[in-house]
Automatic annotation (TrEMBL):
This is Pectate lyase. It is an enzyme of class 4 (lyase). Belongs to the polysaccharide lyase 1 family. Its cofactor is Ca(2+). Residues 1-29 form the signal peptide. The keyword Transcription does not apply. Its main location: secreted. Keywords: Calcium, Cell wall, Lyase, Metal-binding, Secreted, Signal. It is found in: Secreted, Cell wall. Binds 1 Ca(2+) ion. Required for its activity. It comes from Quillaja saponaria.
Amino acid sequence: MTSQTINGTLCRFTLLLFMFALFAPSASIAKKTKIFGLEMNVIDRCWRWNPEWRRNRPQLATCSVGFAGKMTNNIGRDLVHYKVTDPSDNPLDPKPGTLRYGATMIKQKVWITFKKDMKIKLEKPLLISSFTAIDGRGTNVHIAGNACLLIFKATNIIIHGLHIHHCHPQEPSSVMGPEQQVIPLGHVDGDAIRLVTASKVWLDHNTLYECQDGLLDVTRGSTDVTVSNNWFREQDKVMLLGHDDGYLRDKNMKVTVVYNHFGPNCNQRMPRIRHGYAHVANNLYQGWMQYAIGGSECPKVKSEANLFIAPKSGKKEVTWRKGNDQNEGSWKFYSVRDSFENGASFTQSELGRLKPNYTTDQIFEVADAKSVRPLTKAAGALKCTKTSRC
Ligand SMILES: *[C@@H]1O[C@H](CO)[C@@H](O)[C@H](O)[C@H]1NC(C)=O
């Protein structure tokens, strides 16, 4: 850590202390982080304690950590607030009030919320424009039953608080895309969220399950992604980081996977990584069938303070590596402060650390593995009542 980083962190900390002192003169920080006996992680602690969070939804953008950094490019004076009122979908001619209209037709920064609970059956993949935040907090929104989300050549995107499930593959088609341009799409696999050449993307508090391909694909040169507080369950192939063995641009891929809950009934790829670097920290692994973390083509993974609960019967080993990658040096998987239950084991490649080298906007303190259960307890889309906290 450079002295600049330390100064920056200190500054932030002092500011935070000041803010707490301002808003809650009687409560200590320790108490604040344990509202209703709930221990909150660093992301949630940034907004969930505030019963007035609805008044300033975009404040959420300041709460992200990890390789996505702070999402402050998504907010500011020129931000357009857009409310989804209509669950219908027209892929080529989106109607005002629909999710697709908000995600493609508005040329400025947009913060999308939902008027009421709804189930949206997308007719075609939803292409999301740069500088878009989709905020499902306070509503029960399901995107399910057909096409799902696609972030293609876009940047600065927040997806928060959605249930995405039962996603099906899609035939080649054309859809309305960013900047009101019609975009021809090839075949799209049935993933819940797919990133293709995307950067600076924050996926937080979503519930993802039972899709035909995977739940999350980060591919084709995508980087600077934080996957936090999500609940991944009931899925064979959960998370793919890196397109295919031959796609060398994914060497620069950097992804943070933190405070997620994997399981029950997840089989493999939590994540599977090719080429790039993943910092996998403070996640709860509620069993697996084939493996939890695997990879090929010189992937680098720092697994830090996760809780790996092996299945009662079957494979106890967390990791998997593709056949040809047995040679030392090509495959760097490190386990630091991880916790293992039910006989779980983690085969490391060699001793080492592989720091993520986070900037001041990205850095966060990784908690002890003992805290993983409480810190991931609220993973997935939150239930927020009309009058109270989330
Ligand atoms: C962090 O920096 C060290 C030293 O320069 C380097 O070896 C390592 O690969 C870097 N980590 C990442 C994730 O780039």
